[in-house]
Design a protein that fits this description.
single chain, alpha/beta, Serine Threonine Protein Phosphatase 5, Tetratricopeptide repeat, Hypothetical Protein Tm841, Chain: A,domain 3
Length: 593
Amino acid sequence: MNHQTIQKMLIGAYQKVSNKKEAINAINIFPVPDQDTGDNLAFTLQGIFDATNKKTFINMIDLKNAAIDGAICNASGNVGIITTGFLNGFLSNLSDNISTANFVQAFNFGLSSAYNSIQNPKEGTILDVIKGANDSLSQEIDSSDIKKILKNTIVSAKKALDDTQLKMELYKRAGTVDAGGYGFLLILEGFLESLNKKTNYHDTDKKPVIQTGSFFQIISHRYEVISLLESLTTNKKTIIKQLINYGDCLDIIEANQKIKIHIHTDTPDNVVELISTFGSVVHMRTTDMTQQIDQIKNSKKSVGLVVDDASGLDIDFAIKHDIVFVPFKTSWEKVDKKSSYKNLSIYQKMELFKDKTEEYGWPKTSQPTLQSFYNSFKEQLQKYNYVICITASTVISGSYNSAIQARSLLSNEDQKRIIIPDLKQFGPGQSLLTIKAVKLIEQEYTYKQIEKQLMSFTKNIDTFGTPKNIIWITTGGRVNGTIAKIAHFFQKIKIRPMFLLTTKTISLKKIYFGDKPLSTLFVHYLNQKYYSSNGPLKLVIQHGDDDLELKKIKQMLDPNRFKIIQETILSPVIGIHTGPGTFIIGILKPSKK
């Protein structure tokens, strides 16, 4: 065998699992009865398929790097992490001229890597099936017939799968076997069928499966957090030590200078914040698994959402409505590597090091990567017929163009299912658009109707704000020359500008003199500028970590005129440019008759 044979086997595994993913979903009751194990495994293997299909590789190392990069980027759920772990160990130890002995040895490395990817391995899972297959292979080392070896291995894997029913009380009661283990059996069958070039599907015994709702009580931690990181600032051992007490089902796989983390937790905000200190976030997703269970009985929803995190959208709102965030990249290398500052917010660190930029540098930002958008699109397309993507305005960011390019990497059919309108908003304006989109989805509008409504809706949104100190826009060195001199002059004579985002630019809307607090300026501006005779106007407020001023604004606003529907910390991708204490407000104006 050579690497081209392995390439065929990997593609065969994806095709097999993809064809049978609903059968895997149907028996998924552990660790969470959310019936998505088949989807997760197929999505993981699709990463390999997309990275290797119809492509030429020089050698085994070249193939392995492409396949594992595809797998780790797509790896979803426990089954995706464990399978990626196995494949990483397996492929990494195959030579260019693959003998039977080399194949068997590499499979054994795959087993070890699979176990190392999970922090609390249990009997009766996919690991048992991998081990059963490995035990069989170790007895075939003298054979040179790889097809015969795989046939015997599949028989042993099938026995190990059947035995999972005896090792877990849940499976005994449900009359079924482990879903992840069944998925791995299908991978082995896909390997063999790719060599035989024929289809010989294997079905588990058809036994009744208890409705997943009966197993609701087994969820000890309701939120699932999955993240992909690169440019790591720490190692796997340290990550495990810091995350282990935040929940269970902690799985970690490291390969190709990337790391994928999976954990179930009751404190997703804390986990997301902690994970963000481990490196540069390529992709981060939080899911409320109890809602997944509630949605199992429903057919695929019509429209899902992808939103970049310039929106500053409330995390609980995003989780509740299954919205996928696409991260901007923010890094501060000389500070992030120091563990003593990891518990500080970006705004606290900016205050701390504002006069020490020569020693500590300044945080940097960059638009979301194509890979981040691509992964998010593929993930949502598994569950929704169409996906609407809400990005930051092209006036301030390249996020929109990045999303457009990522969409072009999809198949022609999937490209038609991704809608990316340029809605010309950012921050709280994006949040207002997303809230509107959620309501339209709940009212079962079509994707075309939602796009049309959002394009009209965005015209009624004003997004405006001002920094606490205008000098912040020059601190990081991004603004210099004449503009920097003007900023310093404004600061000296105590001029406070109010900026307004338009569809074409960010313009200076109003100038305030003196050093009145932002709460006074914003409430004055709102009272002077906006009024509706049809009830209070809706506001989204985002701030650079200044709870005191936020409290003052809330106390001073007339509830009969204004209603705050969301209040969050300003996204770092915006706040790094405007500084701590910045306030930006999005307001939904009255519709013109």
